[in-house]
Write a structure and sequence with these properties.
Helices cover about 30% and strands about 25% of the residues. It is globular, with a radius of gyration of 18 Å.
Length: about 180
C-alpha cells in the first residue's frame, strides 16, 4: 500500500490488470478468465481492484478450467499491473505476423474508436489494416477512416521495432491519443 500511495495520483485514472503466470502460453489459454478493471480512480478503488484481480485466480470458471486441463492449482501465480489510462481516441491490436495467412512480412492491424476493451470484448467491429514492413506499404479498405497511409506506416514501423526488440512475433495492444 505504501508503494501505491507513493506512486499513484488520486486525480488520475488507472487500469488494474491481472497477469497470470499461465496466461497466453502455447499449452494453456487463460485469456479472459482473470479480471481487469479500467478507469479506476482513487486509492481505495485501486486497492479493491487489486484484491479483486487476485480473487479472480480462484473463480469457478478458472477452477473448472484447471480441473479439465489437469493443471495443479499450486503452479499458478499472478501479478497485478497498474497502468495509467490513456484517454484513447483510438485503440487497436497488431499481430506482427499475419495470423490468417502466416505471412511474416505482413502485419494485421485492427483499430477502433475508444478503448481497446471495445475490440477485445467484441462490442465494436474494428477497421482492418495491413502493413507490409518489407515493402514499406500498407493497405486497407477505402471506407476506413481512422488511420491515414502515413499513420499506418509510422505505427507499422513502430510495431516492427517491437518485434525486433523481442525477437519473435508479437501481439501488441495499443492506444492512440493526439496521433501518438
Amino acid at each position: 500500500r505504501a508503494q501505491l500511495v507513493k506512486e499513484l495520483d488520486d486525480s488520475e485514472y488507472y487500469a488494474v490488470r491481472s497477469s497470470g503466470s499461465k496466461e497466453d502460453l502455447q499449452e494453456y489459454s487463460f485469456a479472459g478468465q482473470y479480471e481487469t478493471y479500467l478507469n479506476v480512480q482513487g486509492m481505495s478503488a485501486v486497492e479493491n481492484a487489486v484484491i479483486a484481480c487476485y480473487k479472480s485466480m480462484f473463480s469457478e470458471v478458472l477452477l473448472n478450467y484447471l480441473v479439465n486441463q489437469t493443471i495443479d492449482y499450486r503452479d499458478l501465480a499472478m501479478a497485478v499491473v497498474i497502468q495509467k489510462m490513456v484517454p484513447a481516441q483510438f485503440s487497436g491490436i497488431c499481430f506482427t505476423v499475419n495470423p490468417i495467412t502466416g505471412n511474416d512480412k505482413e502485419m494485421s492491424i485492427e483499430v477502433a474508436e475508444g478503448l481497446g476493451e471495445n475490440i477485445v470484448s467484441g462490442k465494436v467491429a474494428p477497421e482492418q489494416y495491413c502493413y507490409n514492413w518489407y515493402e514499406k506499404r500498407g493497405s486497407f479498405a477505402k471506407s476506413n477512416r481512422f488511420l491515414t497511409d502515413e499513420q499506418l506506416a509510422a505505427y507499422g514501423e513502430t510495431f516492427f521495432k517491437i518485434q525486433l526488440l523481442f525477437g519473435y512475433p508479437c501481439d501488441i495492444e495499443f492506444a492512440i491519443k493526439d496521433g501518438e
